[in-house]
Design brief:
- Helices cover 20% and strands 24% of the residues.
- By secondary structure, the chain is an alpha+beta fold.
- It has a domain of 46 residues.
- A three-stranded antiparallel beta sheet has the order 3-4-5, covered by helices on one side.
- The two termini are 14 Å apart.
C-alpha cells in the first residue's frame, strides 16, 4: 500500500484494509473513481472525481480495476 504524505500533513492512499488508517488519525474516505459497465457490458473507469480521465472500454471488470489502480498510483499518488 502506497501512502503519500502531503505538505499539510494529510495522507493520500488507495484504500485497502492492509493498513488500519485509524491508527494514524481520523480517516476521511472519498471516492477517487467509479468503475461501471456500459449498456453493452464493457467496463469503464471514470477518474473524474480526482480530475482524471475516463479509461476504457475494457472487456472485463478486473481489467478496468487494474487500469484504475495503475492510473491512480502513477498520477494521483505520484508513484514511480
Amino acid at each position: 500500500m502506497n501512502i503519500l504524505i502531503l505538505p499539510d500533513g494529510s495522507l493520500r492512499c488507495i484504500y485497502s484494509e492492509a493498513v488500519d488508517l485509524r491508527q494514524v488519525g481520523s480517516p476521511k474516505i472519498k471516492r477517487a473513481s467509479h468503475v461501471e459497465p456500459d449498456a453493452e457490458g464493457n467496463w469503464h473507469a471514470d477518474l473524474s472525481p480526482v480530475g482524471g480521465p475516463a479509461l476504457g472500454p475494457f472487456a472485463n471488470r478486473s481489467d478496468a480495476l487494474h487500469a484504475e489502480a495503475e492510473w491512480l498510483d502513477l498520477n494521483w499518488l505520484g508513484s514511480q
